[in-house]
Amino acid sequence: MGVAVTVKNFLDRKDVQMSAKRYGIDALSAMAQGLFASLLIGTIISTLGEQAGLDILVTVGNFAKSATGASMAVAIGCALKSPFLVLFSLIAVGQAANSLGGSGGPLAVYFVAIIAAEAGKLVSKETKIDIIVTPMATIVVGVLVALLCAPHIGAAASYTGMAIMWATELQPFLMGIAVSVITGMILTLPISSAAICAALGLSGLAGGAALAGCCAQMVGFAVMSFRENRFGGLFAQGIGTSMLQMANIVKNPRIWIPPTTAAAITGPLATCVFRLRMDGPAVASGMGSCGLVGQIGVYTGWVSGIADGSKAAITAFDWLGLLLISFVLPALLTPLIALPLRKKNWIGKNDLTLDL
């Protein structure tokens, strides 16, 4: 009993909290920010450079993308409230995990960075030579765990992603609904759909369905709550995040019905009618209309397809599908679905109000 109390007191003093919130919400959400600040923004910059014929922007974007592993690991370290020496040491750990994890690199970084950060926190400032001990422990533990586990984590993530993509190609209607609804709900929850899509390498038709679901939530909530939140809420949710509605969902879960139903409609339309594919970076599948990253990802895939000969040209039908699935249909369907719910008072006057 005494040993257990001593261990608990030590962990509390080191701020090592083994909880679902710390690891499943805080760390994953921070990881998404790390992804955005490296892979996503790098993709946007390099795409702009390619389209404008500015090689310097392509170079800048490529450097940003090359720092993906380090950026994610440091972001996770911040979420875990790591001391500075641990935080800086996670740069090497993140690079190792991302490289060894292959296509499942983000998921490998997630697990490895958590272990390395907590190991570093445990020894931090426990010796008189902290400047040597803390970074050494963090890097050695992190890289060893990466060497042992990252390839297997990456392979498992890759197989899972491929299975989802294979099932979507085989059953585009049913899987279009499932992937769209689930990914969209994850985006609105305080966890990261972008990180999950990146970790699973979700692209192709499955990526298009995921994009549809995320846009249904973001654009749907933005338009449905316009009477309460006006233009501030329209932009904050439409090109920001539908996660802003999470507190209102907890108070009244029924407000989640319209955008989720819209996702169940736009998902199969994306897969069966428009054959909307995410052939850009997988992480963009889980971004929806946030900063238009999802749409840029689709466009990047089109451009790459033309370059490698797999796509003849970007057609008017391509643009129509992207615009309808991303913006028009969520904006029309969600408030229409919400009308009878408002009439039945399932959605009250201030149920969608944000504190902006």
The Cα radius of gyration reads 22 Å
Secondary structural class: mainly alpha
Runs in which pLDDT lies below 50 for 5 or more consecutive residues are none
H and E order: HHHHHHHHHHHHHHH
Number of domains: 2
Q: Tell me the span between the first and last alpha carbons.
A: 49 Å
Work out the strand percent: under 5%
Mean pLDDT: 90
This entry's quaternary arrangement is single chain
Number of helices: 15
Count of DSSP strands: 0
Query: What is the makeup of the main sheet?
Result: none
Explain this structure.
The protein folds into 2 domains: 2-158, no CATH class; 171-343, no CATH class. Helix 4 crosses helix 6, helix 8 packs antiparallel against helix 13 and helix 10 (204-224) packs across helix 15. It is 76% helix and 0% strand. The relative contact order is 0.10. The chain has 356 residues and is an all-alpha fold.
Can you lay out the helices and strands and say which pair or pack?
Elements (H helix, E strand, L loop, with lengths): L1 H12 L6 H33 L2 H12 L1 H12 L4 H17 L4 H19 L6 H41 L1 H17 L4 H8 L3 H21 L1 H13 L7 H6 L5 H17 L19 H16 L7 H28 L13
Helix pairs in contact: 2-3, 2-4, 2-14, 4-5, 4-6, 5-6, 5-7, 6-7, 6-9, 7-8, 7-10, 8-10, 8-13, 10-11, 10-13, 10-15, 13-15
Entry summary:
This protein has 356 residues and is mainly α.
Salient structural properties:
single chain; 356 residues; mainly alpha; 2 domains; 76% helix; globular
